[in-house]
Amino acid sequence: MEYIDLKGMSCPLPVIETKKLIEAGSIEELEVSVDQGSPRENVTRFLESRGYRVSVESDQPDSVVLRATKVGGTETTATHIDSRGLGRGNLSSEHGEPGTRLRVREAGYPLAGGALPLEGATGYPEAPAKLVVGVPAIVVLIDGATVGRGDELLGSVLMKSFLHTLKEIEPRPSRLILLNAGVKLASEGSDLVALLKELEALGIEILSCGTCLDFFKLKEKLSVGKVTNMYDIVSSLVAATNVLKF
């Protein structure tokens, strides 16, 4: 069994070092020692997304040892794929018609939730969905609580208007990523939480930077969406066909 000590490392290093280890050889079982909080959550999600079953071997106040066991299978099943723009891609079906069952080989990218809702992702109990190469995906990146520079009240009005507009456009974004002060939009006390929940219900994945939530002491107040890390954020941006930054 492989063992790696990643305590004391900040995002995204725990995920990156874990990735290097499992890609260096065929590793069926490993133990990873990481700090509590975001490092634990990020490494757990990453390992699950790579087909490992993760359990806690040792749980301490400041750190945890995670045991990961490979459960096999590198494919997940997708249904109701939006065929708009389906071109090249690692799909085992000849057609991308909506409702067609396809086997999607993992491209190693975080998924566009609106474009490819996953069904029965065996071996990936908490894993994020996967972005499929060749399937158009729009990612929205918001790094502040307001839009533009200048008057903050006006910027807040514009942000609300922007999010409302996202509900009406086609194709809709796959992911909405919140960075820096942008995480405040999805946290308790924000008047935009209800609107973000509407977007989530439409299939847009709402992701908030874990490091940013920790900085603003909002981790326990996140009211919509999921916590993510810099590795997943950068992977999403690289895999996207279009990125809208606000």
Give, in order, the helices and strands: EHEHEEEEEEHEHEHEHE
CATH class of the largest domain equals Alpha Beta
Distance between the termini: 45 Å
**CATH architecture descriptor of the largest domain:** 3-Layer(aba) Sandwich
Strand line-up across the major sheet? 11-10-9-8-12
Radius of gyration: 19 Å
Instruction: Please mark out the parts with pLDDT under 50 across 5 or more consecutive residues, or reply none.
Output: 73-129
Percent of residues in helices comes to 25-40%
Proportion of strand residues: 15-25%
Helix/strand-derived category reads alpha/beta
Shape: elongated
Number of domains: 3
Largest sheet: 5 strands, parallel
Number of helices: 6
Mean pLDDT: 77
> What is the β-strand count?
12
CATH topology of the largest domain: Hypothetical Protein Ychn, Chain: A
Kindly report the name of the CATH homologous superfamily of the largest domain: DsrEFH-like
